[in-house]
Here is the input.
Amino acid sequence: MNLIFLGPPGAGKGTHASKLSQQLSIPQISTGDMLRSALREQTTLGLEAKKFMDAGELVPDGVIIGMVKERLKAPDARKGYIFDGFPRTAAQAEALGAFAKIDVVLNLMVSDEVIIRRLSGRRVCPACNGTFHITFLKDEKVCPTCGAALIQRKDDEPETILNRLSVYRRQTEPLINYYQQQGLLRSVDGEGFVDDNYTAILTALDIK
Ligand code: AP5
Here is the structure.
């Protein structure tokens, strides 16, 4: 199954794509994670992307499309994949249509108020890539999975969150209509508890 997880920043794309990736044994392809990993490795791509990411702006389409095309050549993508955070513009969606066949686009719906609360409390683990929320952490500085020190993403600072939301409305939200017209869209409520949202996602995807 080839899936796209669509939704505003903080909608839970990464959280749910990671669970589903394990359940279906297909890779989660997160362009955000790929860019952050390139940045950690100090590659030219990572260093170029940094200024866009830190400001909450989108990295140029050409860079992203080339990166995804390359990623799909890996053997683990043959059985299917879950795009998390891609495509994000009309140009990316059109380019994708030329080199991949998508089965379902899952749209997670979450209000701005909930997004701001989630992102400002998000902490991530640079060692195991886990994502957590301070509300559910005993110690907000320590990863409950591997014990490494948790960090706050630079783009989770309040002003940048607002800019990411506005970029989403302007450049990514129109894709809801784009995929609706192709008959691929399934929308799910992304508010509430993770387990309840995940159950709704499985139902929307007809996964038992
Ligand atoms: P990216 O990493 O893709 O960020 P994003 O889309 O802004 O998404 P997030 O990771 O912030 O949110 P999410 O929906 O995955 O939510 P999560 O599961 O973490 O992109 C970062 C940057 O990279 C972009 O701004 C851009 O610069 C660049 N980029 C990436 N892809 C690009 C592209 N295709 N084109 C151009 N540029 C690109 O959950 C959020 C928090 O909520 C967590 O703390 C979680 O624990 C918590 N939470 C609480 N309750 C729930 C619940 N019920 N469900 C889910 N999560 C919950």
